[in-house]
Design goal:
The chain has 81 residues and is an alpha+beta fold. The chain has 5 helices and 3 strands, in the order H-E-H-H-E-E-H-H. The chain has a 3-stranded antiparallel sheet.
């Protein structure tokens, strides 16, 4: 017989209140990558996320860092105009 004894209750609301936003929050921003692009980045491990319930949640800092990492230099022909 296995009995679990605990002297303190776990505050699940505090555990879930991480400041993360759902993927859809970022996907609807003007100029942002699509929801599918964000989900592919999560699947490839390029973007840190937490799966809560039925959706991934991302911090604004992680999303901003991922966007900065995706930047590419302007094409050479654009710089010569």
């Amino acid at each position: 017989m296995c009995t679990a004894t605990s002297t303190s209750a776990v505050d699940f609301a505090a555990l879930l209140d991480t400041g993360d936003e759902p993927v859809s929050y970022f996907a609807i921003m003007p100029g942002a990558p699509s929801r599918a692009t964000i989900l592919r980045a999560i699947a490839r491990g390029e973007l840190d996320a937490v799966f809560v319930g039925k959706e991934y949640r991302i911090t604004e800092q992680a999303f901003a860092a991922w966007l900065r990492a995706r930047r590419v230099p302007a094409a050479e022909h654009l710089n010569n105009e």
